[in-house]
Amino acid sequence: MLTIRRLMTENESLGDDTIGAFLEAHSSPIVEGPSVTFLYHGKARGVRLRHFIMGFPSLQPFRRVSESDLWFLTMEVPPRSRIEYKLEIEIGSRRRLILDPLNRHNAQDPFGVNSVCYASGYERPEWTREDPETRPGTLETVVLPSAVHGEDVELRVYVPARLRASRKVPLLIAFDGEDYVRYSEFKTVLDNLMHRYELPPMLVALSQSPDRFTDYTASERHAQFVAEDLLPGLESHFPALGTPSARGLMGASLGAVAAFHTAYCYPGVFGKLLLQSGSFRFNDTGYEEHHPALEPVVEFVNGYREDPVRVAERVSVTCGRYESLIWDNRALQPHLQKSGMRIRYSEARDGHNWDNWRDRLRPALSWLFPGPLGMVYE
Predict the structure, then answer these.
(1) Is the peptide bond before 29 cis (omega within 30 degrees of 0)?
(2) CATH code that applies to domain 126-368
(3) Domain 4-118 class in CATH
(4) Spans of all domains in the chain
(5) Count of H helices and E strands in the chain?
(6) Strands 272-276 and 247-252
(7) Cα–Cα nearest to 53, from 286, 282, 320, 277
(8) Most C-beta atoms within 10 A of its C-beta, which of 200, 240, 273, 375?
(9) What pTM value is reported for the model?
């Protein structure tokens, strides 16, 4: 089988047949132990890899194989890593970002689509895929009154397949919940984990803000809406247990800030928190220049670090090692521990994206809300 190393030793120009045979024989990127080789085939003045890994140069140049139109970049990637990226192609005086045309794997988020590289040892968890044996829950739309907004609000609620009218169950409110369903296979994960008794039957409200930079940046008004409008409305509409230990909040990025801040404003109301890649910015992190909208977040996190208090029973925190927020999330852990709450903290070789948050759901949720046959994660 032809290899990049052998192609590089060819003295004459490579023909289309040779390159075609090489590309047909290899999937792209080529993963060989800790080495990953990215490929591009096409006319260009230059090709660069633009990836989203904190701590690595964000643009890395490809090399051309001989005088051909085949380009490559080989880099060392830690095992079990998952990397989202695009290719920057330079043609003439123009540069443009494209998906990797030789890679069929991609991931979508609210901002578009990226190509994905799976390093050695990474496997998408099987519980994130649809299982024909699983009894699916349903997504029901409800309209609830809101004194804070002065009008009714509409949202969808995940209702488990095994819900009985005579049985009350836990309630979890997910900020950016519709995005979790759209980009993180959230409904499929909930279906599978409840079907396998790793989670108890539970209700999950999919809260979606039209203005995240207002509602999710430590907003007292939003916290009031959640605790005084949304929570009682949901518990009067559905058979929820209505106790702190059976109530939870979750979110990612700014959604994690909203979850933590709501629990802080209403301590003891929500017993379980799942905080994924939280934007827990504070002073003295080396990122003093932040978006002006994050000022309330910085003020809130600074205050909590000075006086950590218990706001819930259990808090599960997840974050990717390849995102800048890893430092903020690591720095928050000692303060959470001081509060006396039970904390579960985990990191992954991934970035700030929905697949990372999806892959962390099973251990986080089953630790917060263990089902009768669920694994115990400490």
Answers:
(1) yes
(2) 3.40.50.1820
(3) mainly beta
(4) 4-118, 126-368
(5) 12, 18
(6) parallel
(7) 320
(8) 273
(9) 0.92
